[in-house]
Design a protein that fits this description.
One of its GO terms (molecular function) is phosphorelay response regulator activity. This is Response regulator. Keywords: Phosphoprotein. The chain has eight helices and 15 strands. It has about 250 residues and is of the alpha/beta class. It has two domains: about 130 residues, Response regulator (Rossmann fold, 3-Layer(aba) Sandwich); about 100 residues, LytTr DNA-binding domain (OB fold (Dihydrolipoamide Acetyltransferase, E2P), Beta Barrel). The protein has a five-stranded parallel β-sheet with strand order 2-1-3-4-5, with helices on both faces. Strands 10-9-8-12-11 form a five-stranded antiparallel β-sheet. α2 runs parallel beside α3 and α4 runs antiparallel to α6. The longest helix has 14 residues. The model has no long low-confidence stretch (mean pLDDT about 90).
Length: about 250
């Protein structure tokens, strides 16, 4: 059994989440519910839960500030939030889980399943990534957490050469001829890396523009990457690619 607490300033939202957990996640026991972020810090310190469902948008302290006060964090965390693009991007970059309100039962089961099946010891590094983004929102993240089939790996963003879609998975090709398969779609990966010099040049490829060595003309054309790989460019993305490769024109 997993001992969990639910932190959400909206009473109806916390009650709804507890009901869903009781119905769909029998391995999770909710030991406490807190509707006040300040009290939540004391509650978590006193009860030491294994899992915290943490709302992001709360008065006085938001979810990230709660975690900051509890650092170093020793529990798993699943965030709950209304759509907040900035917060979601930071959470994805850290390979942590979040649920959009109103919470969907299937997404809840999937998130809890990932927590219970986790074999990684990288929680502290994930939290550091998340909090560094929160503390310095204008600074580009230089590391990204990747949930691979073998466990979590944290890699430098500039070590990523290109990413290849494989259905609901994405294959990362890194420097040193290393490849990692992660359980994220290429669309999700593109959203995480959009602030960096990455571009979706094809429905199957996302490339690091710093690693492009040559563009070969054609209907869409193709790219020669720094590792010698040839990457197809779709006709619909050719114009944007050429604009990015020739910013002064």
């Amino acid at each position: 059994m997993i001992n969990a607490v639910v932190i959400d300033d909206e009473h109806y939202a916390s009650r709804a989440l507890v009901t869903l957990l009781q119905k769909h996640c029998p391995d999770v026991t909710v030991t406490a519910v807190c509707n006040n972020a300040r009290e939540a810090v004391r509650l978590i310190r006193d009860t030491r839960p294994q899992l915290v469902f943490l709302d992001i948008e709360m008065p006085y302290l938001n979810g990230f500030e709660v975690l900051e006060m509890l650092a170093p964090v020793s529990f798993d965390c699943i965030f709950t939030t209304s759509y907040d693009q900035y917060a979601i991007k930071a959470i994805r970059f850290s390979a942590l889980d979040y649920l959009l309100k109103p919470v969907d039962p299937e997404e809840l089961k999937s998130a809890v399943g990932r927590v219970t099946g986790k074999q990684s010891n990288s929680l502290q590094q994930q939290m550091e990534l998340l909090l560094s983004r929160f503390q310095q929102p204008q600074t580009l993240m230089n590391r990204i957490a990747l949930p691979t089939l073998e466990g979590l790996q944290i890699v430098p963003v500039d070590s990523i050469l290109y990413c290849t879609s494989q259905s609901n998975y994405t294959i990362f090709t890194l420097t040193g001829n290393q490849k990692l398969t992660i359980s994220r779609t290429l669309k999700e990966v593109a959203e995480m890396l959009e602030e960096h010099q990455f571009l979706r040049v094809h429905h199957s490829y996302l490339v690091n523009l710093h690693e492009v060595r040559k563009y070969n003309r054609g209907e869409g054309g193709s790219l020669l990457m720094s590792d010698g790989a040839a990457i197809d460019v779709s006709r619909s993305r050719k114009e944007e690619l050429l604009r990015k490769l020739q910013p002064g024109k």
